[in-house]
Amino acid sequence: MKRVISATAAIFMGIGLAACNQAPASNPNVDLAKAWVTAASTSRTATMEMIEQNMADDGLLYRDRYVGFGFIWDNQRGAEEGRMIVTEVIADSPVADVLQEGDEFVSVGDVAVTADNMERLPFRGKPGESVAAVIARDGEEMAIEVSRGVVSAPTTKAEMLEWMASANDEDWGPEKWELHEAVGQGNVVYVWTQAWNTDEATGLPFEAHQVTRMMFNDAGQVQAIASLTEDRFMLEQMGYTISR
Fold this sequence. Notes:
Elements: H1 2-21, H2 28-42, H3 44-54, E1 55-62, E2 66-68, E3 71-73, H4 75-81, E4 84-89, E5 104-108, E6 111-112, E7 130-137, E8 140-147, E9 149-151, E10 154-156, H5 157-165, E11 176-185, E12 188-198, E13 205-216, E14 222-229, H6 231-237
Parallel strand pairs: 1-14
Antiparallel strand pairs: 1-10, 2-9, 3-4, 4-5, 5-6, 5-7, 7-8, 11-12, 12-13, 13-14
Helix pairs in contact: 2-3, 3-5
């Protein structure tokens, strides 16, 4: 009897070891997350196709939170013409009831809006602090006052596609990037990447790591995306400082 039990135990041990040595079952969500990040790092067209085909219609991209006003502007036109024109006002932000799409900033905190002053405009700073500004609306200038606050605004699938449709293919993606790891369990996947680039203004190289969290619905579509980035580290490599 002892010999039979030992033989049986050996059989089960063998099965267990064989199972341990087998490669884990492939998670389709991990595969899609890797393909998604690859597209986002290399091609605007591929990114748009990925979003159109694999993101849920009610899916959201959660952007970084910050302290400021809460609007989006045409920075490409700003760089070329030295103008700051509002293209979107973020809901529930400090300027939600102050700004309108099409408003143009003339000055912020006594700093004139020019191509050379874009980095000096005091939008960011201490939360709750009041900042005076002048905007142009319908051909007339008007003074406004805004108290900085925390801005957190998710981007919808439609908004992502609309923004990408007007983006520049030549400026898309980093100069070099690498996907280090992608791990997931069930409907949640984390992707760790690293990117290298050069700041156009200073010519200084910079690199940063990023971890992207992707949540999938039961149909295998992307439901939510959020990232942890090294924004401050990137700015410091480009020569910027954060002061009080």
